[in-house]
Write a structure and sequence with these properties.
With about 325 residues, the protein is mainly α. The chain has one domain. Helix content is about 70%, strand content about 0%. The protein is built from 9 helices and no strands.
């Protein structure tokens, strides 16, 4: 009588390699940096009144895809920002190629990479429409909101690739330890951040930095919309303070979640300080640019908190095989 040996599953060669290679990890970080970077350079276009430096789209002029000497520095700045879209596209394509083999093993990472690539043509079209409509502040605001969504997506990609990499290296990540209250506060932090960012686009669309001296502005009272913008910021600060105190009073809360809250605290304090200072000093260009950068960092920080709260342990291929063999 022969003893039947248990069947051993044959794994494709790709399963023997790490899911997150150093290259994939680097591309995920590059995606986040480039998404934030193009927001800052887009802000430079607007703050230098170069928004219509290329007065049409997709061409820069009716006869040329590139700026001409007659268009001056504004044409160079606007065309330079358009060229950065190709850098963003190259990073997104390289990221998608890098995670292609993970589309079954790590479908979330693959979907995030697809989303980042798909967002680029969407942003290009919105940017083109804003040029066609002479920098209508509603369209310009939408352009920024989509950029914020892209920053959040890239942040999640960085977080998920880091989590999978640690699992493959055998680095344990404890559960967040967040109870119901902390989970609710995380949602509140994300919501208040989103509202503050959106209302910030209304404030910007009402202010003097239109991107072109002839662009239309929102017909709102600047002081009123600024106060409306500040209200969700107060709620955000309150939510962060309560969440941080709870996190440090409860020993079961993970160090990673505590660190995420502290990072968000620091970003929010700096962002609020810049916002108040720019408002009472006549909106100097440098502070407005820093405030735009701060808005992207605030979105990334809020996303970081939500991801840490909702994070689930990721098993490495070895752990998965061990679990299967014990069944």
């Amino acid at each position: 009588m022969t003893t039947q040996q248990p069947a051993v599953a044959d794994h494709p060669a790709e399963d023997d390699r790490p899911a997150v290679t150093p290259a994939v990890r680097a591309l995920a970080i590059a995606s986040l940096v480039s998404e934030i970077g193009i927001v800052v350079t887009g802000g430079a276009v607007r703050l230098t009144a170069s928004g219509l430096g290329c007065p049409t789209w997709p061409r820069c002029t009716a006869d040329s895809f590139i700026s001409t000497p007659e268009m001056g520095v504004h044409g160079v700045i606007e065309f330079g920002n358009r060229l950065l879209t190709f850098v963003l596209t190259a990073v997104a394509i390289a990221t998608l190629v890098g995670v292609w083999r993970l589309r079954r093993r790590q479908p979330m990472i693959f979907r995030l990479a697809v989303g980042l690539l798909a967002g680029i043509p969407a942003q290009a079209v919105i940017g083109g429409i804003s040029v066609w409509m002479n920098l209508n502040p509603w369209i310009v605001g939408l352009h920024f909101i989509v950029s914020a969504v892209m920053v959040a997506t890239a942040t999640v990609l960085v977080k998920r690739t880091g989590r999978v990499r640690d699992a493959e290296r055998g680095v344990a990540r404890p559960a967040s330890g967040a109870g119901r209250t902390l989970r609710q506060l995380a949602v509140a932090i994300a919501v208040f951040t989103g509202i503050a960012v959106y209302l910030g686009t209304i404030v910007t669309g009402t202010g003097p930095h239109a991107g072109d001296h002839g662009a239309i502005r929102h017909p709102f009272d600047p002081d009123i919309v600024t106060r409306l913008h500040a209200f969700p910021v107060y709620l955000l600060v309150a939510s962060l303070v309560i969440a941080t105190v709870l996190a440090f009073r409860r020993p079961e809360v993970s160090p990673r979640l505590r660190r995420a809250l502290l990072i968000a605290d620091a970003v929010t304090v700096l962002q609020a300080a810049i916002g108040f200072t720019q408002h009472f000093t006549g909106l100097p260009v440098l502070l407005v640019a820093l405030h735009m950068l701060g808005a992207c960092l605030a979105v990334a920080a809020a996303t970081n908190i939500v991801d840490e709260v909702r994070a689930r342990p990721v098993r490495s291929p070895v752990q998965r095989d061990t679990a299967l063999s014990t069944r």
